[in-house]
C-alpha cells in the first residue's frame, strides 16, 4: 500500500481569512517502508506571514519572493499524492489549507484525490489519552531523534512523522517472525502451527499476589464495598 506523509507550513492559521501555504513536504511509504521518493516545495504565498507564524517556521517573506506560486506546482503535487493514503498530524488544519489552494485553481478536493486520510494526532490521543501529543512529544515518547528540529519545517516534520507513525503502528506488523529453531518464517499468524510453540506459564509470586490484594482492598474501600469483583460469586 502506498502512503504519503504530508506536512505544510503556512502564513497563519486561517485559510478562509486569506492565509496561504508557503511550504509542502511529502515523504513516501510503500508497505510501511520509506522509499526515498520524497517531494518538497517552497511556495510564494503572495502575502506576508503573520509575526507569530514566522516565529514558528522562520521562513522569511524575502526568501519566498522568487519561489513558484501554488498554481505552478499544483500538477506535480496532485500527481504525487493521487490515490495514496495521506498521513498528517492534525489533518483538518493541513487539509483545510490544501483544499483552499486547490479551490483557487479550480482543482479537485483532497477527498477526490486521495484514498484516505490518517490523522496521527487523533490516533495519538486514543493511544495516549491525557498526555501531550504534539509531534515533539511523540518523538520523545517513541524515541525518534528530533534533535535537528529547532524550527518547524515541512519536509523535516514529514520525515519525523513518518518515523512516529511507523513506531505508533508497529502492532500492525506480523505478530510472529520466527517460531522455531529451523529458521522457518511466516508472513502472518494464520499460517503458524501453534502446536510447535512452547509457551511458558509464569505464575505470580506470593509477594505479587499480596500486593494485588492490597490494591483490590483499596479500590473496594474507595467504592464503599461496591466493587464488582466482590459482588459476583466465582463460578
Give an account of the 3D structure.
The protein is an alpha/beta fold. It has two domains: 2-168, Nucleotidyltransferase, domain 5 (2-Layer Sandwich); 200-235, no CATH class. It is 39% helix and 14% strand. It has ten helices and six strands. It has helices at residues 51-57, 61-64, 70-81, 91-104, 110-113, 120-127, 135-141, 154-168, 206-222, 228-231, and strands spanning 2-10, 21-30, 33-34, 39-42, 85-88, 116-119. Strands 1, 2, 3, 4, 5 and 6 form a six-stranded mixed sheet that branches. It starts with a strand and ends with a helix.
Topology of helices and strands:
Blueprint: E1 2-10, E2 21-30, E3 33-34, E4 39-42, H1 51-57, H2 61-64, H3 70-81, E5 85-88, H4 91-104, H5 110-113, E6 116-119, H6 120-127, H7 135-141, H8 154-168, H9 206-222, H10 228-231
Parallel strand pairs: 1-5, 5-6
Antiparallel strand pairs: 1-2, 2-3, 2-4
Fraction in helix: 25-40%
Question: Count of helical segments?
Answer: 10
Outline: elongated
Strand segment tally: 6
Mean pLDDT over all positions:
87
Q: Strand-residue fraction? A: 5-15%
Radius of gyration in whole Å, from Cα? 25 Å
| Structural class estimated from helices and strands | alpha/beta
**Low-pLDDT windows of residues:** 174-187
The CATH class assignment of the largest domain is: Alpha Beta
SSE order: EEEEHHHEHHEHHHHH
Question: How many discrete structural domains?
Answer: 2
Named at the architecture level, the CATH assignment of the largest domain is 2-Layer Sandwich
CATH superfamily of the largest domain: Ribonuclease H-like superfamily/Ribonuclease H
CATH topology of the largest domain: Nucleotidyltransferase, domain 5
**Main β-sheet, in a few words?**
6 strands, mixed
Kindly report how far apart the N and C termini lie: 48 Å
Amino acid at each position: 500500500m502506498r502512503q504519503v506523509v504530508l506536512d505544510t507550513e503556512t502564513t497563519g492559521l486561517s485559510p478562509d481569512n486569506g492565509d496561504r501555504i508557503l511550504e509542502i513536504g511529502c515523504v513516501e511509504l510503500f508497505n510501511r517502508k520509506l522509499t526515498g521518493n520524497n517531494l518538497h516545495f517552497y511556495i510564494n504565498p503572495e502575502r506576508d506571514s503573520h509575526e507569530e507564524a514566522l516565529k514558528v517556521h522562520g521562513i522569511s517573506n524575502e526568501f519566498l519572493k522568487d519561489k513558484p506560486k501554488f498554481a505552478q506546482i499544483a500538477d506535480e503535487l496532485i500527481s504525487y499524492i493521487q490515490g495514496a493514503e495521506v498521513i498528517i498530524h492534525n489533518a483538518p488544519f493541513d487539509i483545510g489549507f490544501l483544499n483552499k489552494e486547490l479551490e483557487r485553481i479550480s482543482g479537485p478536493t483532497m477527498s477526490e484525490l486521495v484514498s484516505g486520510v490518517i490523522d496521527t494526532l487523533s490516533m495519538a490521543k486514543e493511544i495516549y489519552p491525557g498526555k501531550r501529543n504534539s509531534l515533539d512529544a511523540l518523538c520523545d515518547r517513541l524515541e525518534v531523534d528530533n534533535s535537528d528540529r529547532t524550527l518547524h519545517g515541512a519536509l523535516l516534520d514529514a520525515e519525523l512523522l513518518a518515523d512516529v507513525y511507523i513506531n505508533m503502528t508497529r502492532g500492525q506488523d506480523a505478530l510472529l517472525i520466527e517460531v522455531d529453531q529451523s529458521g522457518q518464517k511466516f508472513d502472518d499468524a494464520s499460517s503458524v502451527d501453534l502446536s510447535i510453540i512452547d509457551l511458558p506459564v509464569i505464575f505470580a509470586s506470593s509477594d505479587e499476589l499480596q500486593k494485588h490484594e492490597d490494591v483490590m482492598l483499596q479500590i473496594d474501600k474507595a467504592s464503599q464495598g461496591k466493587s464488582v469483583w466482590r459482588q459476583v460469586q466465582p463460578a
